[in-house]
Amino acid sequence: MSLIQEFKAFAARGNVIDMAVGIIIGAAFGKIVSSFVGDIIMPPIGIILGGVDFSDLAVVLKAAEGDAPAVVIAYGKFIQTIIDFLIIAFAIFMGVKAMNSMKKKAEEAPAAPAAPTKDQELLSEIRDLLKQQGK
Protein backbone atom coordinates (compact mmCIF):
# COMPACT_ATOMS: atom_id res chain seq x y z
CA MET A 1 0.00 0.00 0.00
CA SER A 2 1.46 3.34 -0.99
CA LEU A 3 1.93 6.22 1.39
CA ILE A 4 -0.82 8.23 -0.31
CA GLN A 5 -3.30 5.35 0.01
CA GLU A 6 -2.41 4.92 3.68
CA PHE A 7 -2.93 8.65 4.27
CA LYS A 8 -6.32 8.56 2.51
CA ALA A 9 -7.41 5.62 4.67
CA PHE A 10 -6.22 7.45 7.80
CA ALA A 11 -7.89 10.77 6.91
CA ALA A 12 -11.17 9.12 5.88
CA ARG A 13 -11.70 7.57 9.33
CA GLY A 14 -14.41 9.28 11.33
CA ASN A 15 -12.22 9.87 14.39
CA VAL A 16 -9.81 12.08 12.45
CA ILE A 17 -12.62 14.19 11.06
CA ASP A 18 -14.25 14.46 14.49
CA MET A 19 -10.92 15.54 15.97
CA ALA A 20 -10.43 18.18 13.26
CA VAL A 21 -13.91 19.60 13.88
CA GLY A 22 -13.18 19.67 17.62
CA ILE A 23 -9.91 21.54 17.09
CA ILE A 24 -11.56 24.13 14.84
CA ILE A 25 -14.45 24.69 17.26
CA GLY A 26 -11.99 24.81 20.18
CA ALA A 27 -9.91 27.49 18.46
CA ALA A 28 -13.02 29.57 17.78
CA PHE A 29 -14.16 29.11 21.40
CA GLY A 30 -10.72 30.27 22.58
CA LYS A 31 -11.05 33.48 20.58
CA ILE A 32 -14.50 34.11 22.05
CA VAL A 33 -13.20 33.59 25.58
CA SER A 34 -10.18 35.84 24.92
CA SER A 35 -12.48 38.60 23.71
CA PHE A 36 -14.82 38.05 26.66
CA VAL A 37 -11.95 38.34 29.15
CA GLY A 38 -10.13 41.22 27.45
CA ASP A 39 -13.17 43.28 26.45
CA ILE A 40 -15.77 42.52 29.12
CA ILE A 41 -14.20 41.14 32.30
CA MET A 42 -10.89 43.00 32.58
CA PRO A 43 -12.11 46.61 32.08
CA PRO A 44 -14.45 46.54 35.12
CA ILE A 45 -11.75 44.83 37.19
CA GLY A 46 -9.34 47.54 36.07
CA ILE A 47 -11.79 50.26 37.13
CA ILE A 48 -12.32 48.58 40.52
CA LEU A 49 -8.54 48.49 40.99
CA GLY A 50 -8.19 52.22 40.28
CA GLY A 51 -8.33 52.54 36.50
CA VAL A 52 -5.67 49.93 35.71
CA ASP A 53 -5.57 48.67 32.12
CA PHE A 54 -4.23 45.14 32.44
CA SER A 55 -3.07 44.94 28.83
CA ASP A 56 -0.69 47.86 29.54
CA LEU A 57 0.83 46.38 32.70
CA ALA A 58 4.47 45.62 32.01
CA VAL A 59 7.95 45.91 33.41
CA VAL A 60 10.40 47.69 31.10
CA LEU A 61 13.72 45.86 31.11
CA LYS A 62 15.34 48.05 28.48
CA ALA A 63 13.95 51.27 27.03
CA ALA A 64 13.58 51.70 23.27
CA GLU A 65 16.73 52.99 21.58
CA GLY A 66 16.57 54.25 18.02
CA ASP A 67 14.95 51.59 15.85
CA ALA A 68 15.23 48.87 18.54
CA PRO A 69 11.95 48.32 20.40
CA ALA A 70 11.77 48.31 24.17
CA VAL A 71 12.27 45.02 26.00
CA VAL A 72 9.35 44.48 28.37
CA ILE A 73 7.75 41.76 30.49
CA ALA A 74 4.04 42.15 29.71
CA TYR A 75 2.60 40.58 32.86
CA GLY A 76 -0.81 42.21 32.30
CA LYS A 77 -1.33 40.19 29.13
CA PHE A 78 -0.16 37.12 31.04
CA ILE A 79 -2.84 37.75 33.69
CA GLN A 80 -5.47 37.95 30.93
CA THR A 81 -4.19 34.69 29.44
CA ILE A 82 -4.46 32.97 32.83
CA ILE A 83 -8.05 34.15 33.17
CA ASP A 84 -8.75 32.91 29.61
CA PHE A 85 -7.35 29.52 30.56
CA LEU A 86 -9.40 29.29 33.74
CA ILE A 87 -12.64 30.09 31.89
CA ILE A 88 -11.90 27.59 29.12
CA ALA A 89 -10.86 24.91 31.63
CA PHE A 90 -14.06 25.48 33.64
CA ALA A 91 -16.21 25.27 30.48
CA ILE A 92 -14.52 22.02 29.46
CA PHE A 93 -14.92 20.66 33.01
CA MET A 94 -18.64 21.45 32.96
CA GLY A 95 -19.03 19.86 29.50
CA VAL A 96 -17.24 16.67 30.55
CA LYS A 97 -19.24 16.58 33.79
CA ALA A 98 -22.51 16.88 31.84
CA MET A 99 -21.46 14.14 29.42
CA ASN A 100 -20.45 11.83 32.30
CA SER A 101 -23.78 12.53 33.99
CA MET A 102 -25.70 11.60 30.84
CA LYS A 103 -23.54 8.50 30.40
CA LYS A 104 -24.16 7.44 34.01
CA LYS A 105 -27.94 7.89 33.59
CA ALA A 106 -27.84 5.74 30.46
CA GLU A 107 -25.92 3.03 32.33
CA GLU A 108 -28.31 3.17 35.30
CA ALA A 109 -31.38 2.72 33.12
CA PRO A 110 -32.58 -0.84 33.72
CA ALA A 111 -32.13 -3.08 30.76
CA ALA A 112 -35.03 -5.21 29.64
CA PRO A 113 -34.74 -8.69 31.14
CA ALA A 114 -33.27 -11.16 28.74
CA ALA A 115 -35.66 -13.65 27.24
CA PRO A 116 -35.24 -17.12 28.69
CA THR A 117 -33.13 -19.49 26.68
CA LYS A 118 -34.55 -22.68 25.21
CA ASP A 119 -32.94 -24.65 28.05
CA GLN A 120 -34.58 -22.42 30.65
CA GLU A 121 -37.97 -22.73 28.93
CA LEU A 122 -37.62 -26.52 28.86
CA LEU A 123 -36.65 -26.64 32.53
CA SER A 124 -39.63 -24.45 33.41
CA GLU A 125 -41.96 -26.79 31.54
CA ILE A 126 -40.47 -29.80 33.35
CA ARG A 127 -40.90 -28.02 36.70
CA ASP A 128 -44.51 -27.19 35.92
CA LEU A 129 -45.23 -30.81 34.89
CA LEU A 130 -43.67 -32.14 38.08
CA LYS A 131 -45.78 -29.72 40.13
CA GLN A 132 -48.92 -30.93 38.36
CA GLN A 133 -48.03 -34.59 39.02
CA GLY A 134 -47.38 -33.90 42.70
CA LYS A 135 -50.91 -32.56 43.27
TrEMBL record:
UniProt record similarity statement: Belongs to the MscL family.
SUPFAM superfamilies, per database record: Gated mechanosensitive channel
Major localization class: membrane
Oligomeric form and interacting partners: Homopentamer.
One Gene Ontology molecular-function label: mechanosensitive monoatomic ion channel activity
Cross-referenced Pfam families: MscL
GO cellular component: a single term: plasma membrane
Keyword set, alphabetical order: Cell inner membrane, Cell membrane, Ion channel, Ion transport, Membrane, Transmembrane, Transmembrane helix, Transport
Function: Channel that opens in response to stretch forces in the membrane lipid bilayer. May participate in the regulation of osmotic pressure changes within the cell.
Segments passing through the bilayer: 21-52, 72-96
Gene symbol of the encoding locus: mscL
Membrane topology: Multi-pass membrane protein
Name of protein: Large-conductance mechanosensitive channel
Alphabetized HAMAP family for the sequence: MscL (MF_00115)
Compartment annotation: Cell inner membrane; Cell membrane
